[in-house]
Amino acid sequence: PRLSASTWDGCGLISREMVLRLSTSADDDKHLKELQTCRRFSVTVLHNAGQEKGHVYVVDDLATDFLFPTGSTKKEVALRNGKVFIGIEQC
Known about the structure:
Blueprint: H1 5-8, E1 11-15, H2 16-22, H3 29-37, E2 40-47, E3 50-59, E4 66-67, E5 85-90
């Protein structure tokens, strides 16, 4: 699927599978439960092509980890070490 930039500006989708993978780093039971049950998060994804930032909705059948509108990547900020940073917070 594609997301319309005008409709989805500042928003995106995250797969349930990705949320569950991120939940393995939860440092306490309360945080783990929030990650496993929340349907919407505030997220920052920083990588070598730039940064995506906004709210994401959890989708059970998404074929990729994240989906953001085409052209929403902020290219002014990027990681140049080949790593990916993902910050996620319950809304």
